[in-house]
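Supplementary Methods, section 5.1.

A reviewer requested that the exact input to the structure prediction be made available. We therefore reproduce it here, unchanged from the version used in the analyses.
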Amino acid sequence: MFEQKGCPWCAKWDREIAPIYPKSAEGERLPLRRVDIDQPRPADLAAVGPIRYTPSFVAMEGGKEVGRITGYPGDDVFWGLLGQIMAKLPQ
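The structure derived from this sequence is encoded token-by-token as follows.
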């Protein structure tokens, strides 16, 4: 999760999804890692394309980006988009 201080959509995601995310099948398969876009990007995320909006959720597999959700469109849409990303991952 690419985020930044003061992002109201990040705060909304934190209220609505963050408490349950680690307990979900999606959270187990794609553990959440928070990255502040105002700080230097970690070297292992150098292959991630530009991040312009927060929050941005980037799913990585084998060091490569396999899917992305830009923004927080609400809980129903978020889980649906995340399900589409999960379907792309190897079992």
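The chain has one domain: 2-88. These observations are discussed further in the main text.
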